[in-house]
Amino acid sequence: MTRPTFQIDGKPVTFTEGQTIMEAATAAGVYIPHLCHNPEFEPHGSCKLCTVKVNGRNCSACTFPAADGQEVLNDTAELNELRRTITQMLFVEGNHLCPSCEKSGNCQLQAAAYFLGMTDAHFPFFYPRRELDASHPDILLDRDRCIFCALCVRASRDVDGKNVFAIGGRGIDSRLIVNSPSGRLADTPIAATDKATRVCPVGAILIKRHGFEVPIGERVYDRHTIAEESLEREEPIVEARHG
Amino acid sequence: MAEKLTIATTSLAGCFGCHMSFLDIDERILALAEVARFDRSPLTDIKHCRDRVDLGLVEGGVCNAENVHTLREFRRHCRILVAVGACAINGGLPTLRNPIALEECLQEAYRDGIGVENPQIPDDVELPLLLDKVHPIHEVVRVDYSLPGCPPSADVIWAFLSDLAAGGEPSLPRELIHYD
Hey, which of A109, A127, B137, B178 would disulfide with B98, CB 3.0 to 4.6 Å? Predict the structure, then answer.
C-alpha cells in the first residue's frame, strides 16, 4: 500500500496518519521555522513562526494535521517576510539585548532572526519593565527575555510533574509567573536538573554559573544555522514518536 | 575618473566600538580611499557635513537632546543613512535604564548610590538634557540600512561598503548577521 503523501513547496512528503505538518516535514528533512514548538511536547501553536500555506490558507504547521494530497507552501518570500515581521515583534515586545545576554549564540529567537535575515527590529520598542528572579541558588529567571512560548510551563507540568510555571495576564501584560505563595522561584520545588530548566529557547531560564563555558563566536548558532541544528536535534525525536 | 563616494560618520550614545571596528578593515582602507572620500567624521575631525554626502554611518542610540539634534542634521545631509551596531539599531546597553524612571536613575547615580561623594544631580546649562528613554535611531529619523553587531565586524562593514561602492543593492550574507 502506498503511504499518504502531501507536497511541501512542490516536493512530495510521505507521512504517518496522525502526524502534524511540522512532524512530517521534520521527518522528511524539511525545516519549517518555529520557536514555541518542540517535538518532545504537545504543540502550543502560539508563536505563529511556523505559519505555512495549506491549500491557500495560512495555518500553524505545528498544530495542523497532515492530510493526503495537501499542497503546502513553506519556504516562500511571502511567508519568510511574515515570519521575519513576527520575529521583529517578539524583539520589540521584550528586552532582548543580545550583547549582554549569556544565551547569545545559543538562543533560538536570535538564530531564527539570523535565518530570516533580520537586520533591525523595524517597530518602536516597548522596553517593558519585567521582574528578574534571582532567588533560586541554581536557576536564574530573567523575564526580560521571555517570549511566552510556554515550553517551561509544559515541561514542568508534563515531564517534571511540578507545575512551577504559568503564563499570567493577557496581551501586552502577559508575564511568566511562578507557582509559589511568594511568587519566587526559590520557594518552588524546581531543581536545576528539571526538564523545565532545559527547554527555554531564549535566555529567560538559565542555570547559574555556566554562562560562559563556551565563548561567544563558538556557540551552536555561530557554527550552524537553526535549520541545520533543529533538524538534526528534532528528527530522531519525531522518528521515535511515530516510527 | 568617476566622482568619489562621499562618506560621513557620527557617534551618538555609543562607545566608539563601531568606529574602531570600521578601522579594523585595516589595509582595505587604502582600497576604500581610492573610491571614497570622508566628510564629517570623528576620523577627519570635520564637525559638520560640508555638503550632501552619499553615505552616512551612525553609531550609538539617542539618549539626549543633543543626539536628536545631531541625528536630524546628519540625516538631512545623507542620501543613504545606515544604523551601525546594536545601539543605533535597538538602543543597546544604554536602554537598560529605560524601564526605570529617569529621576530614579539620576538619584541612584549622583545622590544615593554607594560611594557617591559630594552628592548632586548635574544641571550645568552646558550639559545636554537627557531624554526620559534611550531610543534607537529609527524612532527619530528614517533609516535605509542596518548593520547589526556589537560591534559589526570589519567584514560586515566591508561587505556593505563594497556592495555600495560597486553600485549594487547591499545585502548581508546570512553568516555575517550577528547581534553580539
Answer: A127
